Amino acid sequence: MTFEVTILGSNAAVPAFGRHPSAQILNVNEQLYLIDCGEGTQIRMNDHNIRRHRINQIFISHLHGDHIFGLIGLLTSYSLGQRTEQIDIFGPAGLQEFLEVQIKISQSHLTYPLNVHTVDPTQATLIFSDRNLTVTTIPLDHRIPACGYLFREKKRLLNVIPEKLIEYGIDFKQINEIKKGGKGTNAKGEAFDNASLTLPPYIPRSFAYCSDTAYKPDIIPLIKEIDLLYHEATFSEDKTENAIATKHSTAKEAAMIAKAAEVENLLIGHFSSRYHDLNILLHEAKSVFSNTQLAIEGITFPVKIRRSI
After folding, report:
1. Strand 87-91 to strand 114-118: parallel, antiparallel, or no bridges (unpaired)?
2. Which tens digits make up the pLDDT trace of 190-236?
3. In this model, does residue 1 exceed pLDDT 90?
C-alpha cells in the first residue's frame, strides 16, 4: 500500500546548483497528486519517470511564480497528448484568472475539463476527498495569500486472516462482511467473533506540505503527530532578519514546528540560492529535531505502515 512523496523541485525563487523551483508528487496507491508546479516541473517528471497521466488533482500553495510557472506548460502538454480525463486544481483566488489569460493569449485549447477550485487560505478547511484520502488546507503566513495542505489517508477496513477462515471452515465470500466488523459463520452454523478472524487495520498515514510561510506556531494543532511534515527552510538562523522581511522560515524554526507538533519525520526545502552546501541548513534543523532530512530532488520518501498495538 503505497504512500510516498517524491521531490521534483526544492529551491526557492529561481533554479540554482541543479535545484529547481517547488514541486512534489504524492503517490497514494498509485494515484498521483501534484503539489505546486514551479518552472520545469514536467521536465522533472520525465527525469524521474513520473506517470503524469495518473495526476487528476493539483494543489497550489500560492501564486508566486516559483510555485506556478510550470503549470500552463503541463496543462497544455496534456492536450497535446489528447487527454480527456478531468483535472481539478486547488489554489488561492486569482489562479483561475492566471490560467485563463495564458490559455487565451496563447490560443491554446484544452481537450479535457479543467476545474479550478478557489480555496480560502485563512481557514483550515476540508477541500477534497476521494477513495484514498482527504485534503485540508493549512493557513500560512506569507507576503501574499498562501496555504499548505494536509493529506490524510482514509481509515482502512479490518484485515482478515485467511488461515483462520480455512481453519474454521468459513466461506471466503464472507470476507467483505467480516472486514466491516461482522462475524463469520461456517457450514455447520457455528459463528466466530470478528476479533478471532481479523487484525486491526494499519494507522492511516499523513503528510503535510507547508511552503511558503513565516514561523507560524498556530499551525501546530493542525499537524499534530502526523507522519511526515514538509516545511520550508529558506534561510539559516543567522539570516533571521531576511526570513522576517520576506515572510519565510529558518531551518531552526521549521524544526521547532516539527518538534512541537510531535511529527514523526521532517523534510526541509525551499532553499535559498545563497546555499550551495545544504548541510548548513540540515545541521541547524537536526540540532532541534533529529528526524530531519533534506528534500533532495529525485528522492522518494516513503511513509511506513504503523499498526495499532
Report:
1. parallel
2. 888 888 888 877 899 999 999 999 999 999 999 999 999 999 999 99
3. no
Q: Determine phi and psi for 25, rounding to 5 degrees.
A: -120, 125
CA distance 78 to 56: 11
Same domain, 57 and 121: yes
Pairing of strands 133-139, 147-153: antiparallel
Q: Is 36 a catalytic residue?
A: no
Nearest to 232 by CA among 24, 48, 65: 24
The phi and psi torsions of 212 (rounded to 5 degrees) equal -100, 150
Residue 309: which pLDDT band, with cuts at 50, 70 and 90?
low
In a domain, 32, yes or no: yes
Domain that holds residue 182: 159-198
**Residue 270 within any structural domain of the chain:** yes
At 249-292, the pLDDT tens digits run 999 999 999 999 999 999 999 999 999 999 999 999 999 999 99
- Residues 220 and 294 occupy one common structural domain: yes
Cα angle 69-234-8, degrees, rounded to a multiple of 5: 45
User: Of 66, 120, 141, 171, which is the active-site residue?
Assistant: 66
Instruction: Kindly tell me the burial class for residue 117, based on how many C-beta atoms sit within 10 Å of its own C-beta (0-12, 13-18, 19 or more).
Output: middle
- The pLDDT value given to residue 132: 95
User: To 10 degrees, what angle do helices 279-286 and 251-261 make?
Assistant: 30
Distance from the first to the final alpha carbon of the chain: 20
Same domain, yes or no, for 212 and 190? no
Residue with cell 521547532: 256
